[in-house]
Amino acid sequence: MTPHIRDITSSELKLFADIVHRLERLSAQDDVRRAALSDLVKLLRADGGCSCIWQETKQRFCESIYVGAPPEIRSLYDDWYQFNDPITSRLRAARRATIVDEVLDRRELIKTEFYNDYLQRDALEWGINIYMFDQRNRDLGDFRIWRRRGKTNFDEREKVLLDVLEPFIRSALLRGHTHSDGLTTREREITELVSRGCTDRDIARVLGISFGTVRTHISRVLEKFGCANRAELAASFTKAR
Questions:
Q1: Which has the closest alpha carbon to 47: 73, 83, 21?
Q2: Which of 91, 97, 184, 197 has its CA 20 to 30 A from that of 171?
Q3: CATH 3.30.450.80 in the chain, residues?
C-alpha cells in the first residue's frame, strides 16, 4: 500500500511545518537550497547530502552546497566524479523523489568506481534524490540525501515526504531564480550597483549584507557574463539592459 502524508509521525509533522514556514521567509536561492538541504537531511534521518544546479551551457553541475560531507568529498565530486557518476542522470530523469536502488541495481552499483572510490570514502550507502525544475524546464537545483553504512535504506514513505515538500521548495527557489539575463534577484541588484560605480563596501552598506557576500556574488556574476573584471561587467550589463 502506498504511504500517505497522514502516515508521518507527530515529530515529523512538526519538522515538516517548520520547513514550510522557513521556506516562506527565504528569498535568495542559495539560502533556500542550504536551508532545505539541512532540513531534509534531518527530516529523513540521514547523514548528509548535497545540492547542485545543472548548467546546460557548461554541461556540468555547479554551485554545490554540502551538509555533513568532509572537504575532500566535495572537491572529488565537483572536479571528477560528477563526470563519472552512473546514477545522477537516471535519478534526474525521474523528475520526482527517487531512491538510488530504483534506477541502478545494487549489484551493479557496487562494482562501479563511483561507489568504491567515492561513496565508500565517506561510508555512504543509501541514497534518495529529488530534482526541481521551473515551467520552462530550467534546473532550479537538486537535493541528494544519503545515509551511511549500517543504517536502513530509504523507502516509499520517505519518497512521499519529499514529493509533498517539493512544491514548497520549488516555490521558494523560484522566488530567487534568475531573470532573463541569467542573474538572481540579488545578483542583479549588486550588478546594477557595480554598473553605477559603487565599490564592494558601498554595495554591502546599501544592501545590508557582508563585504564577503558581495564579493561572492560578484565572482558568480563575472563568471556568468564571462567578464574578466568589473569594468567589463559594467559595460556588458549596461549593454544587455
A1: 73
A2: 91
A3: 5-175
- In a 10 Å sphere around its CB, with 0-12 CB exposed, 13-18 middle and 19+ buried, how is residue 4 labelled? exposed
86 neighbors 112 (Cβ within 8 angstroms): yes
Q: By three-state DSSP, how is residue 60 classified?
A: strand
Residue 122 CA to residue 90 CA, distance in Å, equals 22
Angle between helices 185-195 and 230-240 (to 10 degrees): 110
Class at the top of the CATH hierarchy for domain 5-175: alpha beta
Distance of alpha carbon 118 from alpha carbon 116, whole angstroms: 6
As given in the structure block, the three cell numbers for residue 31 are 539560502
Chain-centre distance for alpha carbon 161 = 18
Locus of grid cell 517548520: 18
Per residue in 179-230, pLDDT tens? 656 788 788 888 988 988 888 988 888 888 889 999 999 999 998 888 999 9
Place of cell 564592494: 200
Give the tens place of pLDDT for each residue, 109-163.
999 999 999 999 999 999 999 999 987 788 999 999 999 999 999 999 899 889 8
**Residues near 165 by Cβ (< 8 Å), separated by ≥ 6?**
16, 19, 20, 40
CB 146 within 8 A of CB 126: yes
β-strand 139-148 against 60-67: which pairing, if any? unpaired
The class level of CATH for 185-240 reads mainly alpha
